[in-house]
Design brief:
The chain is an all-alpha fold. Helices cover 75% and strands 0% of the residues.
Length: 182
């Protein structure tokens, strides 16, 4: 409900909505950027750039999930900054987790074979059906690009348990996607 009010205030160009976004999502936005950049200054700049992007994009955008919308922008901004800082067009260390998920989508050209909104809905439904721990581990691995060891340390569980959780969750996702025709 709070997100709906924030979006309405953004549409009315109320600058105080940005302060509410910063209070509500600032820490997680910073952690997302810092995980990728490993630099406090760059992570803070990414957070500021994210707020500016939200300000510039709402309206016309009207996201259903404001938090997800903000984190996606922050992650993309952090990846852009990382590429600019390292002078690389693509860092294999950052793309491996998402490349692993590509194995779940069978056949075809993923850019034209599915509607992104349907896939997002399907993924959200899938994640909500998983246990809380499996969901957290999976999100840490594939959204925050955390290494298995970092996830194990964060949740105080064994490394092999983290790897097995990711493997099983990925297998379940693959089966669901195949069943749904992806």
């Amino acid at each position: 409900m709070i997100d709906v009010l924030i979006i309405e205030r953004l549409k009315q160009r109320d600058e105080t909505a940005l302060e509410d976004i910063k209070k509500r999502y600032g820490d997680t936005c910073y952690k997302t950027a810092f995980t990728i950049l490993k630099s406090r200054e760059d992570a803070e700049e990414v957070c500021a750039d994210t707020l500016l992007a939200v300000w510039n994009n709402i309206p016309p955008d009207c996201p259903e999930n404001l938090g997800g919308y903000i984190f996606k922008i922050a992650r993309n901004k952090a990846l852009e900054r990382y590429r600019a800082n390292t002078g690389q067009l693509r860092n294999p260390k950052l793309t491996v987790p998402l490349d692993e998920l590509g194995d779940c989508i069978v056949g075809g050209d993923t850019e034209t074979d599915f509607d992104e909104r349907q896939l997002v809905t399907l993924l959200n439904r899938f994640l909500s059906s998983q246990s809380e721990q499996d969901r957290r581990v999976f999100i840490c691995r594939y959204f925050y690009n955390m290494k298995y060891g970092e996830i194990a340390k964060k949740y105080g569980i064994g490394l092999s348990r983290v790897k097995m959780s990711v493997k099983r969750t990925k297998q379940k996702l693959s089966e669901l996607l195949e069943k749904e025709g992806y």
